[in-house]
Specification:
heterodimer; A: about 900 residues; alpha+beta; 4 domains; six-stranded mixed beta barrel; about 55% helix; globular; B: about 120 residues; mainly alpha; Arc Repressor Mutant, subunit A; three-stranded antiparallel beta sheet
């Protein structure tokens, strides 16, 4: 390389290095700095030693990368100090800007907290990024225990895999029992997750793998704290779970969980599955869930071998799946795995899709709220900039460069936004706590407890958004305040802010705010209308006048006969109460947060090779259920006394299942297989909705309660009596019959639907979107009021003249209102286009309503026109109160 | 004349700042000349980097210790246009005050026999 070329290369690097310094520094000293570097370089070259050159480069590199950031920091310190002093001098401006920003940013931060818990926060375990969720696409999403073992052994890309299953249990210690949710876990659960115990030890590999191993339990840290006061002496003690003795061997670490929605109190080895199974097998000969390949009940997490990608693991798992399908064609030919990162399978693989769409949409709406907020703050900053023109001109005259001034104004806007975040955080923390309580209170049986917290990640994301919002809000005022022609404008004595472009810009802002809040309100309106529709959907049963109460004799350790006796006497006693039309037991009521699925196949399997056995909702019911819930039977008979443990296992199918299994034939008398049992179809029930209001007709089976006798069941009572009257009556009867049996979730069917999967998503959606819509509308109204008031102030003189010339107050008011109305109409026009775009994205979340529902759009537009006129009316009235003489003197 | 308290507000100076002010004491110089002067006078013991130097110059200018001067010593020696800096009266006082301060410390150390006195003056 020639010296000349080397020099030019060095020059280029010097120039690039000088760019690291702040703008002001560069324009003052950049050229000199470059030249000094060139001279130093030349001198080092003259020395002729490689050492001198290397020393120079090291020296320059070190120098620039320490000095340049220090210079930036010095400017930032200066600007921040200047901004804070400025804000302290204008406390009302500062407070209104900070509170406005806090409103928008709290919406965003809240959504971040929800998204973080639902989609981003890694599990608190060793190398969580290696974890993948493995589930079944067709049929129940879980895997069976033996399948899990095969996948562990036969899949090369998988370091290991664990299975777990949540279930209700009752934990008794010192004579008092409490209902908890436990995890049944495979022996390698804790070792694969790589977590250390907080006390004692955790379940070890190969522990509790064989039936008959010592019953042990690991407590969750939080449960250990709340129930045992964090006493380490609890390790080694015996507690009773579901009537059996378990030795506490240790405590899981603080904050540990693999479940994002449900609070787990204890971990028990999976071999206990038969004792905990929600449904005890109907026949004693039925295979244990431990070795039944069709009992797909385990949620599975795998750990990728290091260096193996999820795609490779997916391919390797598919190979294992294919070999299982060859080996077990009757049960496995339909198996197709869904393999996704663990974070994509929250709160469960079935609901993660909905959660992700809903969260994304809500984050988008929150971003609109932030934009409206920024627009409002822009308005405030514009007004402030106008009043600071003299100060800016003075500083420019003293040598401050334009870029420097713009940077300073932006710093002020960003400071406001950061203060806004600080103000928003307490509100968001409270809101998340409230949401957590709402979800926790939704159902005692589900034990919901999502970890909705404002953590470092949420805070960092919110701060980033705040910086963005600050820049968006501050850029236009900063540029307009630091215009180059400012000095001339001052000299000419023009009145601050009276030029056309500033006022046009503020008008444009108001129009944008109206448009954006229309978008928010339309989204909110569509969700509210969806909720209305949801309530009108034909559920296939009649929820009015039905009360529910759940009892769990099974978790008391009662055997089948004892449970049956309890259920019978409770039902008989309640049915005999005055005003009770019907009373029946059901394993799990429809539209709860949890439901049970069974894969069913007919006695004669279709010959079509593509045929797959359907997955049906399963309800175990007593005969009276059909009367209590008013589910119509369309064929065959109801359950009878003979459908008990001694009789042939009986089943009633719904219309959809009947059509799927026996098209154009009567299903009565046919046999079907479900959950390892062979059942005789005795009746056909009308279709209904079972888990979700929006679901397509899906297959369902009703099994005879007397033949399955679940450990937990819900009494459904049809009565004309009032809630406050029937609730305590149900509780009393249950307590009289057996005071040890836990009774919970005594509620009306309407409440159950509100808190369950039926209406909860729609209610939350409607609540969040109308909340955001309300915020947007309020902010837009404030912005419009400010702008109209500003325009009116500008026109004080003109109005004074007109009044002096005899104009009536009504004319002036009409004039000002017309201006507000114009803003509203343009904003609405733009907003409708915008809203239609956003509504497209909502389509999947709406029910029974078009995203272009004209009623919603018209109602929202009308509301906004009214708000705009109202916001214009106050300044309009004030304008007419102006004394013409004073108005004329004002200028 | 700057009041004494105003001068003292700048003390103590950092060694690079003191060296820079001292380098300008006998005449106007541009940045590179300041660097060379400091290196020469200290036998290479103190070597300022270019970035550090201009950050110092910037601060000293803002504080009124030095000013940029329009006068050029000799246009033939000055092949490229660059900025020259001159010590202000305030800068001179500040540098002198810093040296007095250092001298007082040296004197104190000598009294305590921490360092020997020079044999002859």
């Amino acid at each position: 390389m020639s010296p000349a070329r080397r020099r030019s290369f060095a020059d280029r690097i010097f120039r690039a290095l000088v760019r690291l310094f702040p703008f002001d520094f560069r324009s003052d000293h950049g050229r000199d700095l470059e030249q000094t570097l060139r001279e130093q370089h030349r001198e080092a070259q003259r020395e002729g030693s490689m050492g001198a050159l290397v020393r120079l480069w090291l020296d320059v590199g070190h120098d620039f990368f320490t000095t340049a950031p220090r210079e930036h920091a010095a400017i930032l310190r200066q600007d921040v100090g200047y901004a804070l002093r400025g804000l302290r001098r204008a406390p009302i401006f500062a407070l209104s800007a900070v509170l406005t920003l806090a409103l928008g940013l709290s919406a965003m931060a809240g959504m971040f907290a929800i998204a973080d818990a639902g989609m981003f926060r890694p599990l608190p375990v060793d190398r969580p990024e290696q974890l993948i969720s493995i589930s079944n696409r067709t049929g129940p999403p879980g895997l069976s225990f033996p399948d899990l073992q095969d996948y562990r052994r036969q899949t090369p890309g998988l370091a290991d895999a664990i299975g777990y299953q949540a279930g209700p249990a009752s934990l008794m210690v010192d004579g008092s029992s409490e209902r908890i949710t436990i995890h049944l876990v495979t022996d390698n659960y804790f070792s694969m997750l790589g977590v250390p115990p907080a006390a004692g030890r955790l379940i070890a590999p190969n522990e509790g793998r064989a039936r008959g191993d010592a019953p042990v339990v690991v407590l969750a840290y939080e449960y250990w704290q709340s129930r045992f006061g964090g006493n380490p002496a609890v390790v080694g003690r015996t507690v009773r779970i579901n009537g059996r003795s378990f030795t506490v061997i240790g405590v899981a670490p603080r904050g540990f969980h693999t479940e994002s929605l449900v609070r787990i109190a204890a971990y028990v080895p999976a071999w206990m599955i038969d004792a905990f199974s929600y449904y005890s097998a109907s026949a004693p000969s039925a295979p244990s869930a431990f070795d039944d390949r069709s009992a797909r009940r385990f949620r599975v997490l795998g750990r990728l071998r290091s260096g193996v990608s999820i795609d490779e693991a997916r391919a390797a798992l598919a190979v294992t799946t294919a070999s299982l399908a060859r080996e077990y064609p009757s049960t496995h030919k339909d198996v197709e795995l869904v393999v996704v990162p663990e974070t994509h399978a929250r709160p469960s693989i079935e609901s993660s899709g909905f959660l992700r769409i809903a969260t994304t949409v809500l984050i988008g709406l929150a971003a609109i709220v932030v934009l409206i907020t920024s627009a409002n703050v822009t308005n405030l900053l514009m007004a402030r900039a106008a009043s600071r023109e003299r100060e800016v001109a003075l500083r420019a005259a003293l040598g401050a460069r334009r870029g420097r001034l713009v940077r300073q104004f932006l710093t002020e806007a960003v400071m406001l936004a950061l203060l806004g975040v600080l103000a928003a955080v307490p509100a968001v923390v409270l809101a998340m706590r409230a949401l957590r309580n709402v979800l926790a209170g939704a159902s005692a049986i589900a034990n919901l407890d999502p970890e909705l917290v404002v953590n470092v990640r949420v805070l960092a994301a919110s701060l980033a958004i705040a910086v963005g919002a600050g820049i968006v809000a501050g850029i236009a005022p900063a540029l307009s305040a630091c215009r180059a022609d400012l000095g001339d404008r001052l000299k000419s004595g023009a009145r601050a802010g009276s030029d056309g472009s500033g006022s046009r810009f503020r008008s444009a802002l108001v129009v944008a705010q109206v448009a954006l809040s229309l978008t928010l309100l339309v989204s909110g309106g569509l969700f509210v209308r969806s909720l209305e529709h949801a309530r009108d959907v034909d559920l296939g049963f009649d929820p009015d006048g039905v009360f529910l109460a759940t009892a769990a004799p099974g978790i008391q350790g009662y055997g089948t006969m004892q449970r049956l006796a309890f259920y019978r006497s409770v039902r008989d006693r309640i049915a005999a109460q005055p005003g009770v039309e019907a009373a029946a037991w059901i394993s799990l009521p429809p539209m709860g947060i949890i439901g049970d699925l069974d894969q069913v196949s007919p006695d004669v399997q279709p010959t079509d090779p593509n045929w797959r056995p359907p997955v049906a909702m399963r309800f175990d019911v007593t005969p009276e259920y059909f009367a209590a819930a008013r589910v119509r039977l369309v064929d065959g008979r109801l359950f009878e006394a003979r459908d008990d443990a001694a009789g042939t296992p009986a089943v009633i199918v719904n219309e959809t299942l009947a059509r799927q299994l026996w098209p154009q034939q009567s299903p009565i008398g046919r046999m079907l297989k479900a959950d390892g049992d062979t059942l005789e179809v005795v009746g056909v029930a009308r279709n209904g909705k079972y888990m979700n209001i929006g679901e397509a007709p899906r297959p369902a089976i009703f099994r005879s309660f007397a033949q399955t006798v679940p450990g937990t069941a819900t009494l459904a009572i049809r009565t004309a009596r009032a809630a406050g009257d029937i609730g305590p009556a149900i509780r009393n009867v249950m307590q009289e019959i057996d005071r040890d049996v836990a009774v919970y979730d005594v509620r009306s069917m309407a409440t159950h639907l509100d808190n369950g999967s039926a209406f909860m998503p729609f209610r939350l959606g409607a609540f969040m979107t109308t909340l955001f819509g309300g915020m947007g509308m309020l902010l837009a109204a404030i912005g419009l009021y400010g702008t109209i008031a500003y325009h009116v102030t500008q026109r004080t003189q003109e109005i004074g003249v007109r009044m002096a010339l005899g104009a009536r107050a009504a004319d002036i008011i009409r004039d000002v209102l017309a201006q507000g109305g114009r803003f509203a109409l343009i904003g609405i026009g733009v907003g409708i286009v915008l809203a239609a775009g956003v509504a497209q994205l909502l389509k999947g979340l709406l029910l029974g309503i078009s995203p272009f529902d004209p009623i919603t759009y018209a109602a929202v537009a009308g509301l906004l026109v009214a708000i705009c006129l109202l916001a214009s009316f106050v300044p309009a009235r004030r304008a007419t109160a102006v004394d013409p003489l004073i108005a004329l003197r004002a200028d | 004349m700057a009041p004494r308290s105003r001068v003292e507000a700048f003390l103590p100076l950092t060694p690079p700042m003191l060296h820079t002010l001292v380098a300008l004491a006998d005449g106007d110089k541009h940045g590179y000349a300041i660097l060379k002067e400091i290196a020469r006078r200290t036998d290479g013991a103190v070597r300022l980097s270019a970035g550090t130097l201009y950050a110092l110059i910037r601060r000293a200018e803002a504080d009124g210790l030095i000013v940029e001067t329009d006068e050029r010593p000799d246009i033939s020696l000055d092949d490229e246009r660059r900025r020259y800096y001159r010590l202000t009266p305030l800068g001179r006082k500040v540098a002198a005050a810093e040296i007095e301060r250092l001298e007082a410390i040296v004197e104190m150390a000598r009294d305590k026999k921490l360092v020997p006195r020079p044999r002859s003056i």
